[in-house]
Amino acid sequence: LVITFVAVGIASAPPLTFTFSDVHTTKTATETDSYGVNNSGVIVGDYIDSAGIQHAFSLAGKKLTTADNKACSSATAFYAVNSAGTAVGWCISTSGTDASFTWAKGKFTPISFPKSTGTEATGINDKNDVTGFYLDSSATQHGFVKKGSKYKSIDVKGATSAVAYGINNAGDMAVYAFNSAGDYVSYLYNGKTFKPISDP
User: Checking DSSP bridges between strand 184-189 and strand 194-197, what pairing results, if any?
Assistant: First the structure.
């Protein structure tokens, strides 16, 4: 009887359908990369212009806003955006290191894990908590979360090169790292415990 109900439930599940739309920035862009979207449909990412320069962008409907950080020499990009339209990203700084920032209303605010040699921010939630990774003085990679002005390092036991890639409003983080065999391992991290994620 249980098997019958399960079979009926599976059989009656509607097929998944998706609609895809192209993301356009400027007519002269040679490449456009979209990395994040918020609940209002604002898309963020980067594009490369005809001169080969990479710019971060925010696209709200058809309104394109290009963002260039004076502290960056190249590779400026936004990777996530929250409901308020605050974006987070990183670039190569004028000194040649990875430099991160938030961007809101045209203003860039630096994000730098204390005593790191480079920081890449890739996630932000509606509380303005930011996630990403940083490099320590020995070039070892660690994940991090920034809440308010406080930074917390994130490392996975038995793994290396952790990255806290994204964060939701509940504070749950998508984390990945490399295990001792050099393979990717993924987790859902709530700030206290790591729950493994593995596609069967």
Answer: antiparallel
- Report the candidate in 150, 100, 142, 91 with the shortest Cα–Cα distance to residue 121: 100
Question: Does the pTM exceed 0.85?
Answer: yes
Give me the long-range contacts of 99-108 (CB less than 8 A, separation at least 24). 99/69, 99/71, 99/72, 100/130, 100/132, 101/69, 101/71, 102/128, 102/130, 103/56, 103/58, 103/67, 103/69, 103/78, 106/65, 106/67, 108/67, 108/69, 108/71
In this prediction, residue 1 has a pLDDT band, given cuts at 50, 70 and 90, of very low
Which residue type, as a one-letter code, is found at position 157?
K
Q: Report yes or no: 93 and 76 within 8 Å, Cβ to Cβ.
A: no
| Sheet with 54-60, side-by-side order of all strands | 31-37, 43-48, 54-60, 63-67
